[in-house]
Amino acid sequence: MSEAPAIAVRGLTKRFGQRTVVDGVDLTVMPGRICGFLGPNGSGKTTTLRMICGLLIPDAGEGEVLGLDLATKRRAIKHQIGYMTQKFGLFSDLSIAENLEFIARVYRLDQRRERVAATLDKLGLASRADQLAGKLSGGWKQRLALAAAVMHEPKILLLDEPTAGVDPQARREFWDQIHALAAEGMTVLVSTHYMDEAERCHEIAYIAYGVMLARGTIGEVIAASGLHALQGEGPGADRLAAEIEQRPGVAMAAPFGTSLHVCGLDPAALQKAVEPWTDRIAFTPAEPSLEDVFIHLMRGATDNSVEAR
Ligand SMILES: Nc1ncnc2c1ncn2[C@@H]1O[C@H](COP(=O)(O)OP(=O)(O)OP(=O)(O)O)[C@@H](O)[C@H]1O
């Protein structure tokens, strides 16, 4: 028998007033996979995460989380999920260890002392156990928040922009920990705006203004976009973006350092669009980036942030 998905939701919909902020979202994540959840600000990522973990009741849609019915088993689902919110929600005037002890009590965990010690060790926090949470740098705060989210050994971890404002080294360490947790079987759904983080996910889902526009591995999402790209090198190539973007057949153009990156759906039209500059700029085929695809999808989506009438 094939393995059941950890998360399988269909047609998930949430309305606030007249606005549909999540509109018929389907999402399946298999156990032990890391799924990146991307999309412009206000597109419904947090709202979707909150529906999946049972904190928010969908207006429509259905699904199973860890095989439990989302409509009737919200309490049981909540207990098996770790949720790290965007805001640091721990006590600044308690130490790292005290914060974890508090969480252990809230979850009524057994063998609290052992669990706190094991969590401190596992997430590399032991050397700072007595430090006040409020005095930690952004990276250490995130590490503590992650420890608090996984101490009850959830099967699914939902992370809402976990590394916003954290430096690259701390982000890398954070992602190494996420991969270690996934390797042990934890399923991770993580919202992010960072392309390098998207690239560290096994698969990605892209939502714009409530509508799921792309899903799959990075290769699948790029291939499904139908985009083609050219890289232009030569004097002043990086200054041509605005002009080239106006040409027919060009979906977008952007400077990448001293070179120019141009994308479009039709390779022949793209080649024709850059022809006026080929005497001084050498254009060669390039791989469209994930960022190209997301910007292209976002431009084609309808912004629903204005209240419907
Ligand atoms: N409780 C609420 N009442 C009314 N509107 C809400 C509520 N919660 C969220 N919204 C609106 O729903 C939309 C989607 O918000 P959500 O936080 O899910 O987006 P997001 O994709 O997580 O955004 P970001 O990337 O900025 O975190 C936004 O326009 C937001 O203002």
UniProtKB/TrEMBL annotation:
The organism's place on the tree of life at top rank: Bacteria
Membrane-spanning residues: none
InterPro entries referenced in this protein's UniProt entry, alphabetically: AAA+_ATPase, ABC_transporter-like_ATP-bd, ABC_transporter-like_CS, P-loop_NTPase
SMART domains named among the record's database cross-references: AAA
Domain ABC transporter, first and last residues per copy: 7-234
Pfam hit, one: ABC_tran
One example GO MF annotation: ATP hydrolysis activity
Keywords (A to Z) from UniProt: ATP-binding, Nucleotide-binding
KW Transferase (keyword) present: no
Key word ATP-binding present: yes
Entry protein name: ABC transporter ATP-binding protein
Lineage: Bacteria, Pseudomonadati, Pseudomonadota, Alphaproteobacteria, Sphingomonadales
